[in-house]
Amino acid sequence: MLGGEEQAFTEFFDAYCPRLYRFAMARMQGNEDAAEEVVQNTLCKAISGMKSYRGEAALFTWLCTICRREIQAHYRSLQLAPMMVGLPEDSPEIRAALDALASGEGQDPESQLRRREMARLVQVTLDCLPPWYGDALEWKYIHGLSVKEIAGRLNLGSKAAESLLTRARQAFREGFAALMGNRGRVGGPAR
Questions:
Q1: Which of 18, 47, 77 corresponds to the end of one domain?
Q2: Cβ atoms 125, 175 nearer than 8 A
Q3: 67 within 8 A of 41, measured Cβ to Cβ
Q4: Which tens digits make up the pLDDT trace of 109-132?
Q5: For a tag site, which of 50, 84, 89, 110 has the least CB within 10 Å?
Q6: Number of domains, the chain
Q7: What span, in angstroms and rounded, lies between the C-alpha atoms of 149 and 130?
Q8: pTM of the shown model
Q9: For position 103, what pLDDT does the model report?
Q10: Using alpha carbons only, how large is the chain's radius of gyration in Å?
Q11: Residue 62 forms part of a structural domain
Q12: Do 135 and 22 touch, CB atoms closer than 8 A?
């Protein structure tokens, strides 16, 4: 990519843009336009500063650091304080949130907060997956695409897409379980 190869840029963009967008959306109160702008600014700064990337952290971690700065700059430009978004491992209430979701509690404010916390946990898990897993799961379960449509987007046969979805679901389950396990250790005993 540093040598100006268009294919390398396309691969970089395809691998990181959707993940960064999910990362930004979770921190921008669902403002799609602002998240898109922040991600574009992030990718532009990352590309122009790619020579400074030393590989001390994963590339996605480095990109998230740039994205956080862009989010802060966005809020500063509006003269607003950034929305504070705690990562799932910061909240001791995750077990209670899961129990409430499982029991089908009503729409009271506490239940709504628990649902938002659960959505945040799902987003963090998706962000940690390989990009093709996160994309496939998002297409299937958020956008409602069929396996055939997902196969077409990924240039795969239907059986290969089914297999990829199976592996993606397993990776999601394992990642989500790891986050849940960390929540109990970080936030105290699970309820």
A1: 77
A2: yes
A3: no
A4: 777 777 777 777 777 787 778 878
A5: 84
A6: 2
A7: 20
A8: 0.48
A9: 47
A10: 18
A11: yes
A12: no
